[in-house]
Amino acid sequence: MSGDDEEHAVLLNNYFLTLNRNSWIAIGVSIYSGPCCFVLTKNDGQRYPTCWSVADGRDALTIDTWNPIRSIYLLANRENVWANIQEQDIPSRMNFDVNKTKDWRPFFSHSFPRDNIPWTSVQPNDLHYEETRAEDVAALIRQIDDILHEKFRDWREANVTRWHSTCQNRLREIVKDKEMEFIKGSIGTDIESKLVEFQGTHNITGFSLQMPYTTIQAIVDSVHSTNIFKHATNDIQFALAVDIHPYPNNILAVWIYIAHLTKKS
Fold first, then answer.
1. Measured between alpha carbons, how far is 54 from 6 in angstroms, rounded to an integer?
2. CATH at 235
């Protein structure tokens, strides 16, 4: 996605507004990137606000020790812009009630009212998501799978490329659950048990790749960068499986599982 932190923060903030969340664009300092923009949300009854990264969507409460935001000096929403004038700018030590003028200085005030400025917006009032067609996803899975198998043969043109069909079928079963496991935080917890039938006769090395779908070439490049195909021997078999988890509006999460197997002596 193109754009800088400021534009991503506006986009994410507007998305939260469509969900009727209390949200602000925030400017501060992150331990990862230095000066940055992010989004702050605070639900009714929520004691500590949540900081949202506009780069990867990860969140942390202002009191969490793992929160990468180390200082906050400005908040903004559709009502006003507030400068932090508290003695502290560390999120865990700050008060986030912007109505307290001893802590937050508003840009607009009675002497400089917001309503005196004409406001226009290029944003649509409603967000309309298209349904992602299951048949399109299935066709894309087949296309990516065929291309990757062909690329493996091209990359190994000096050697024979053999596929372990039984293991490959098992990987296809495993990869279908990857996205939901990832969402639930249980990814990779039981992979070995699902491949136990092959471990008695083969040494297996494998891993999964996950990426948002942009282009097929980007997927090919990601698989190529792993160098798993670089085995200058014919005494090896490969297994590869592809799955795509669809989200609304043609947002696609691509999962690829790749493994190679060698027979035990």
1. 9
2. 3.40.33
